[in-house]
């Protein structure tokens, strides 16, 4: 029988989710190696592929720390056709004209900076305790509110009518399917995604298959200082950090024990406070 990793062998896995499986299904092969205590840091649609950040063991407590990172995608938009899901898996509900290159280039300038975006009806956004996608599939009317997002960069990489390949650098909570929808609407037509690749999350790039980072490597990649403590039990018992440690003020820092296991993440707010305790 294959031995399971030590309980304290907590890692951050950069996993390349394949096309055709949900983010939840993509975790199955990882659970056979790392156990059931896994958490991913941002859902990818079934038709999409690319980087899925996966935390194991007690590092799952760090999910909120990573979900706020910006993301980079490459996507292919098809103009003149739209499905109810805004991707290849839905039913066609609209057909329209295919714009010309000059229209694409001019309209693309509208999609930069802070924007208000209405998520797709088929999405993981919760409405009255249920996912919008569940309500939409049940035939219920879904009324979603616009949310503020930010597009840091959006480039047209290729135009092979009716398909436009784009690269998007955006904030958390941005739906690339919604960008395709709104981009088409801005030119008086309809559109949808035919493919989506999540290339990068924060400083982490998508590997060919998977890459494993230790907690120390994770924090170094995030430019969060790492300190070693010989008193991990102080965090475990919830003793205020200022009573047992002294560190230079920075927004956040990570504490590791002498075996290089993560103890806690502290945040500075005029005094040190626990952000996450993993001891």
Description:
The chain is of the alpha+beta class and 279 residues long. The protein is built from eight helices and 18 strands. The chain has three domains: 70 residues, Alpha-Beta Plaits (2-Layer Sandwich); 131 residues, Pseudouridine synthase, CATH 3.30.2350.10; 59 residues, PUA domain (Archaeosine Trna-guanine Transglycosylase, Chain: A, domain 4). Strand 16 and strand 17 form a beta hairpin. The two termini are 29 Å apart.
Which features does this protein show?
279 residues; alpha+beta; Alpha-Beta Plaits; Pseudouridine synthase; Archaeosine Trna-guanine Transglycosylase, Chain: A, domain 4; ten-stranded mixed β-sheet; four-stranded mixed β-sheet; 8 helices; 37% strand; disordered N terminus
In short:
This protein is of the alpha+beta class and 279 residues long. Helices cover 19% and strands 37% of the residues. The protein folds into 3 domains: 12-69 and 203-214, 2-Layer Sandwich (Alpha-Beta Plaits), CATH 3.30.70; 71-201, Pseudouridine synthase; 219-277, PUA domain (Archaeosine Trna-guanine Transglycosylase, Chain: A, domain 4), CATH 2.30.130.10.
Tell me the radius of gyration. Answer: 22 Å
The major β-sheet equals:
10 strands, mixed
The CATH superfamily of the largest domain is known as Pseudouridine synthase
**CATH-defined topology of the largest domain:** Pseudouridine synthase
Shape: elongated
Structural class of the helices, strands and pairings? alpha+beta
Number of helices: 8
Mean pLDDT: 90
- The CATH architecture term of the largest domain is 2-Layer Sandwich
**Which oligomeric form is depicted?**
single chain
- In helices, the fraction of residues equals 10-25%
